[in-house]
Amino acid sequence: MSKGTISPAPPRVSQYGVDPKYVNMRGADLDGMTSVGLRELIPDLPDVIYPSDLGPSAVRSATEQTLAKVDLSKFKPGSTVNILASHHGFTFLRGEPYAEMLRTIKDFVQSETDVKEVRLRAGLGMRFRETEEYIKSHGLDDYFNGKALGVAPVDEGLPIDTRIGTLYGLRKMYDADVIIHAHNSDVREVHFHRQVDRAVKPFGMSYARTETRSTYHWNLGPRAANFVARSIFDSDFVQQKYGFSCFMIMSPVGAITVDADNDLYALNDRVTVGGMKNYGKIITLMGAIDECIVILALRCCVWVKAFCMPLSRRSVSGMWVCPGGTIYARHRPFSNGPWLVSAVACGAL
Amino acid sequence: MKTVNVHAKVNLDLCIGCKTCERVCPVYAVKVTREGKKVNVEIDGKICVGCWNCEQRCPEHAIEMVACEPYTLSTDVSAFDYEEIKELCRKARFHPKQLVCYCTASRAEELAAAILAGASSPEEVVRATGIGAGCGIECNQPILRFLEAAGKTFERRKNSYQWYGRTCTVWEIPEEVRSEYPVFRFDGDREMFEEIINAPVQK
User: Fold this and answer.
1) Which of the listed residues A2, A215, A339, B196 has the most CB atoms within 10 Å of its CB?
2) What is the mean pLDDT of residues B145-174?
3) Within its chain, how far is the Cα of A138 from the centroid?
4) What is the average pLDDT score of chain B?
5) By the CB < 8 Å criterion, does A67 face chain B?
6) Helix or strand holding residue A133 (H, E)
């Protein structure tokens, strides 16, 4: 066990966070604080490519290697391509590995095909300019020649016919001939999706209008709701455009590798198994902690707001901060209700 | 219930007249007009619910939120016969005490009361309760489900990016989908909802 504390990442400049100039003290600076490395607790956690001495180049190599096995026959000469991304990817490890994966996908498609243009379309959640901030801070607007956009759930919609009726995607996400699904495998809100179609979820969330996201949250229930994303992905409209998927494969200690596939459901199976294998122990361990004090200094925390109660000792019994800043907490939103494990905050920390 | 303490204000020197603000407004408080090269933007302070959509989506950062005299958007549930409230909630398939908007901590009973008070379109519900004037994401479908349950039909404004339509509920999943995908537990979730909807109302 470390006698000191691991330095947290520097605070990020964001309109949604505290201005770094006002951050005079971090939780790690409090008297008596000690860091516990996850590998000390769980020795069989996998090796990672990031963070490592190789930096982002390890992500580039892994992305190139996995993309080499992808079928690019859908990428016709002169066609337009949208890489669909989500803000969540930028919340890991300061966002650089995800940004490098996106850059590499663009470079690879342009070098291997004669497409006309590759753009970036990145979805976001409740902070409608958050992705714009990531795009700017990672220089992706220049890298994509000004064709990198953050797309919000209130932006122009697009009706999509599915097996469960009309759902609504975001028009800017689908305004290309071919789409690439570029995501990550972190378990995130495991109490919501329960690892059911984890890899498919952005089709019903990050790439979808508010009507569709609300369908997930209100109309179908905790298991059935995961069909929203599948029904959109399986629709004729999306299948006509779908090229391949490319995922940054995450673990509690960093990015393990990059995995790409034309078959999203095959990738989904691998993500499901990996999620259980790599996150199961830490979630189980958190479930065994019966009391803890949580330090949160946030301007925005969805779950505090969502359940209208403070994350106090009574409602939170375990907490874990992943590299890059996503905070997972074992918490009980309702007294006498079930304990849940979820990401309580990320991004603008 | 929502207390509104900011209103949108446009800087016409930066505005390019793209109408994004008009299209993302959930209550149609913004009107963009153009006379030749001159753009005019009217934001109706009597209608604005301070949701920040326009400020957050303006591509030119031409809108800022400025403090206004605070006022509250809410509907008093006690002004209505609670049996009527319960009936409308059950029709919409919500429990009266169920939270329908996390941002405003509003419950289904308030949504029902707003409609009983005369709200007949999504924007009128937002104005009457504040529901839908927070994150702008989560509560979209409860609003549309309640309006439909009350028999209120509304026409979506042309060119607006709001209120595209009600979508599928767990009661409407086609039989072939339910049997083809048992892993999604459609029937189990429907039973769970029925249990919630039919639970007794505690005072």
Assistant:
1) A215
2) 96
3) 16
4) 95
5) no
6) helix A130-137
Confidence bin at B59 (pLDDT 50/70/90): very high
| Secondary structure (H, E, C), chain B | CEEEEEEEEECCCCCCCCCHHHHHCCCCCEEEEEECCEEEEEECCCCCCCCCHHHHHCCCCCEEEEEEEEEEECCCHHHCCHHHHHHHHHHHCCCCCCEEECCCCEEHHHHHHHHHCCCCCHHHHHHHHCCCCCCCCCCHHHHHHHHHHCCCCCCCCCCCCCCCCCCCCHHHCCHHHHHHCHHHCHHHHHHHHHHHHCCCCCC
Which residues of A are less than 8 Å from B167 in CB distance? 164-168, 211-212, 214-215, 219
CB A82 within 8 A of CB A169: no
What pLDDT, on the 0 to 100 scale, is given for residue A307? 31
Euclidean distance between CA atoms A135 and A256, whole angstroms = 23
The answer to whether the peptide bond before residue B182 is cis (omega within 30 degrees of 0) is no
- Predicted confidence at residue A294, as pLDDT, reads 66
* Chain A residues inside the 8 Å CB shell of B52: 128
Q: Report phi then psi at A165, rounded to 5.
A: 100, -170
What's the alpha-carbon Rg for chain A, to the nearest Å?
A: 20
CA angle A150, A152, A154 (to 5 degrees): 155
- Where chain A has pLDDT below 50, the residues are 299-318, 320-326, 333-335, 343-349
CB pair distance less than 8 Å for B188 and A223: yes
CB contact under 8 A, B105 and A213: no
- If residue A285 lies in a helix (H) or strand (E), which one and from where to where? helix A264-288
Report pLDDT for A323: 39
| Closest to B193 in 3D by CA, of B111, B94, B102, B110 | B94
- pLDDT band, very low/low/confident/very high, at B131 (cuts 50, 70, 90): very high
Q: Do A168 and B161 touch (CB under 8 A)?
A: no
User: How many angstroms away from the CA of A265 is the closest CA of chain B?
Assistant: 14
Is ipTM strictly over 0.95?
A: yes
- Could you tell me the pLDDT band of residue B103, with boundaries at 50, 70 and 90? confident
CB proximity A155 to B under 8 Å: yes
Instruction: Please list every residue in chain A whose beta carbon sits closer than 8 Å to the beta carbon of residue B148.
Output: none
- Largest Cα–Cα distance of chain A, in whole Å? 62
Binary contact (A224, B173; C-beta < 8 A): yes
pLDDT value at position A291?
72
pTM: 0.90
Smallest Cβ–Cβ distance between B167 and the set A167, A196, A222 belongs to A167
